[in-house]
């Protein structure tokens, strides 16, 4: 390409750097310290004890103007302009990106807290909105260009920035309950500026006036404005000057949520020591991450900015005679200069991803990146807007992934990556580059690290003491004895540490010593409630007590707390009915009666007369031994009255006699009298009279009280009587 092409590119075209680093790799759960670059929360609850990055590098270049068969580019004699396929538009773009990670490491400071320290060098170039049609017209120089109508180059904008980072990240588990798990992280970065340059056009228009007789005198008419600036005065000094004072600070922050439906499998309350609190396992089914990176800027205090009014005419001779860009611009255009500090922003971006554990070690990741920096801003660098879908196989020492990425301007590209132990390598576009003849993007990354993984501890004897702390790794034993079984010299199942008599067998209950009989009462001390006092077997080796001291032992004393007589079972003599007869000899302790009748009331004539009255008024069904239904209530009342009289004589014996008249068969009358007497007795017993106080007897017609010759006399003879027989 001739000098004119270079001038036009510097004046009017732009390149946009929108490529990310470590495509497909950084969402791996074993990405380690690299993952902190995209979401600082990712390192909390990681699969690493520590992860040390020795060196890693990621680079990318892409565009939407030139399509090439990538590996032909590296052949001798390859000409981009003639051998590539150009796709010009009013706003073409290209990318250049370099990211180097130096010695860095992460480590756990507590089960839920993690730190990372990293060093990093970065270079990003953003040049945008190139009018590819103009580039295509003048790529071989004015003398080879065909006449073209005025082309509006618009307002191309480009910036390039290189800097170093020293960062520290802190991440912690913020919330953990059942299936929900949330962690967050923050990164603070010290930024050291290396270099910054930018160019931006405004309302740029170019048109060619062709001289067919003398092509070298063809003229290019340009109008518009162009601003060029940088971290130092490049016009005054082409040599790079490092400025230690060009520095700044930056921040990243992020969150990660994990859905853990099988959380019971990882319950820390049920974890064995060998489980290492399940730190070696990925426990989520779905993981969601959200982060914002590269918040901040770097101040360049020696920066200079020149603004050129590019209204004028350019010929091929002017271009050929120019020694450098600044000489050409200063000779042909008017400029306005300023020398003041400038702040170069970081490529602030929003990142979101979702990671699905499909089954066992197979995962699918969906990642999106959105630039938060305006493309039209002066001296702005930014990342690409992109979406990636990455299936991967992941294990502790090996991972393989195939990212499929849609880029904002270079389209869809397919890559591949590999992690094997300490080494990882990959590309987000390698598959596309191998099969496409019009590749517009290429990237790569490679790294070397020292990973120290979390892992389940060994416990060969399964005694709950991990091998590295177990003094007897092949024999189970308690943790208190460093994993070794306790000795039992006398084989009595009581370990020597708990055995008061380690050389003599004895029961567990006596701390390994044989039982004694201290009080010689034939009961061993282990079952003797009073091992030092002689006592009978029946009272568990204790002497019987006599609480009230009345010589009647409590076991025989009906009143153990009150002094009483032996003959009254240790109780004092009482006279409840106050009849002068002690309750212990009173047959009727609740009813007053004379002593000669053992404290019971005497049955007197008045009582007997009343009984006879009541008994005579008990009616039966004619010719039957059943109570009359016609006079049921009266009969019941008479029976109740008799019951009330008899209960006052609990020690008296009464007889119920039944009588009939002489009408009919004598044997039938005898039987009827017996049955009626018994019916009355059973009725009284049914009402609560003690059966011991009653008997019944029938006399038939043998004992009439009136003459059977008259109806009135026979009625008197059909009767029941109650007779007092004496005391029980």
TrEMBL record:
Residues 607-728 form the OmpA-like domain. Keywords: Cell outer membrane, Cell projection, Cilium, Flagellum, Membrane, Signal. InterPro entries: Bact_OuterMem_StrucFunc, DUF5723, OMP_bac, OmpA-like, OMPA-like_CS, OmpA-like_sf, Thrombospondin_3-like_rpt, TSP_type-3_rpt. Residues 1-19 form the signal peptide. Residues 695-714 are annotated as: Disordered. Residues 695-710 have a biased composition (Polar residues). It holds the Pfam family TSP_3. It is found in: Cell outer membrane. One of its GO terms (biological process) is cell adhesion. PANTHER family: LIPOPROTEIN YIAD-RELATED, STATOR ELEMENT OF FLAGELLAR MOTOR COMPLEX. This is Flagellar motor protein MotB. It comes from Flavobacterium cheongpyeongense.
């Amino acid at each position: 390409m001739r000098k004119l092409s270079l001038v036009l590119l510097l004046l009017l075209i732009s390149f946009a750097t929108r490529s990310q680093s470590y495509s497909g790799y950084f969402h791996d759960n074993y990405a380690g310290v690299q993952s902190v670059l995209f979401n600082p929360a990712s390192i909390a609850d990681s699969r690493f004890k520590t992860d040390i990055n020795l060196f890693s590098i990621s680079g990318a270049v892409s565009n939407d103007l030139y399509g090439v068969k990538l590996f032909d580019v590296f052949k001798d004699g390859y000409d981009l302009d003639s051998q590539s396929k150009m796709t010009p538009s009013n706003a073409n773009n290209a990318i250049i990106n370099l990211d180097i990670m130096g010695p860095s490491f992460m480590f756990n400071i507590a089960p839920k807290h993690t730190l990372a320290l990293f060093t990093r060098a970065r270079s990003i170039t953003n040049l945008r909105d190139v009018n590819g049609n103009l580039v295509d017209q003048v790529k071989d120089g004015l003398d080879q260009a065909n006449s073209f109508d005025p082309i509006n180059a618009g307002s191309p904008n480009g910036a390039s920035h290189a800097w170093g980072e020293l960062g520290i990240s802190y991440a912690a588990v913020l919330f953990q309950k059942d299936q929900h798990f949330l962690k967050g992280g923050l990164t603070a970065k010290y930024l050291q500026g290396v270099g910054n340059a930018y160019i931006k056009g405004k309302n740029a228009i170019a048109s060619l006036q062709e001289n067919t007789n003398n092509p070298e005198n063809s003229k290019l008419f340009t109008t518009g404005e162009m601003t060029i600036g940088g971290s130092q005065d490049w016009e005054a000094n082409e040599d790079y000057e490092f400025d230690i004072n060009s520095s700044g600070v930056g921040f990243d922050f992020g969150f990660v949520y994990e859905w853990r439906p099988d959380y019971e499998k990882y319950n820390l309350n049920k974890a064995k020591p060998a489980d290492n609190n399940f730190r070696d396992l990925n426990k989520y089914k779905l993981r969601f991450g959200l982060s914002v990176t590269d918040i901040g800027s770097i101040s360049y205090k020696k920066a200079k900015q020149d603004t050129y009014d590019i209204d004028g005419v350019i010929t091929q001779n002017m271009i050929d005679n120019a020694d450098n860009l600044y000489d050409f611009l200063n000779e042909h255009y008017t400029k306005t200069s300023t020398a003041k500090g400038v702040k170069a922003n970081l490529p602030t971006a929003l990142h979101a991803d979702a990671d699905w554990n499909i089954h066992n070690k197979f995962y699918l990741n969906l990642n999106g990146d959105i630039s938060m920096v305006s493309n039209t801003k002066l001296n702005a660098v930014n990342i690409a807007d992109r979406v990636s879908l990455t299936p991967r196989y992941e294990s502790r020492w090996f991972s393989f992934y195939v990212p499929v990425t849609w880029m904002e301007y270079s389209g869809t590209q397919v890559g591949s990556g590999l992690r094997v132990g300490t080494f990882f390598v990959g590309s987000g576009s390698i598959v596309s580059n191998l099969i496409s003849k019009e590749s517009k993007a290429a990237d790569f990354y490679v790294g070397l690290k020292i990973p120290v993984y979390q892992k389940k501890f060994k416990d060969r004897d399964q005694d709950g003491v991990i091998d590295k702390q177990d003094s007897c790794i092949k024999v189970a034993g308690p943790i208190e004895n460093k994993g070794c079984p306790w000795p039992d010299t006398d084989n009595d199942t009581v370990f020597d540490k708990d055995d008061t008599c380690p050389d003599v067998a004895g029961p567990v209950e006596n701390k390994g010593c044989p039982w004694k009989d201290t009080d010689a009462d034939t009961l061993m001390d282990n079952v003797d409630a009073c091992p030092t006092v002689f006592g009978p077997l029946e009272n568990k080796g204790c002497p019987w007590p006599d609480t009230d001291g009345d010589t009647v032992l409590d076991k025989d004393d009906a009143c153990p707390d009150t002094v009483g007589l032996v003959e009254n079972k240790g109780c004092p003599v009482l006279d409840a009915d106050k009849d002068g007869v002690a309750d212990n000899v009173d047959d009727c302790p609740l009813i007053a009666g004379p002593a000669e009748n053992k404290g019971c009331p005497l049955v007197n004539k008045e009582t007997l007369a009343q009984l006879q009255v009541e008994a005579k008024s008990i009616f039966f069904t004619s010719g039957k031994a059943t109570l009359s239904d016609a006079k049921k209530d009266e009969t019941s009342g008479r029976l109740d009255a008799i019951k009330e009289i008899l209960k006052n004589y609990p020690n008296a014996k009464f007889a119920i006699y039944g009588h009939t008249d002489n009408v009919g068969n004598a044997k039938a009358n005898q039987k009827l009298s017996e049955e009626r007497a018994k019916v009355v007795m059973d009725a009284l017993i049914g009402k609560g009279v003690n059966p011991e106080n009653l008997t019944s007897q029938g006399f038939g017609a043998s004992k009439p009280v009136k003459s059977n010759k008259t109806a009135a006399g026979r009625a008197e003879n059909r009767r029941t009587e109650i007779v007092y027989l004496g005391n029980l």
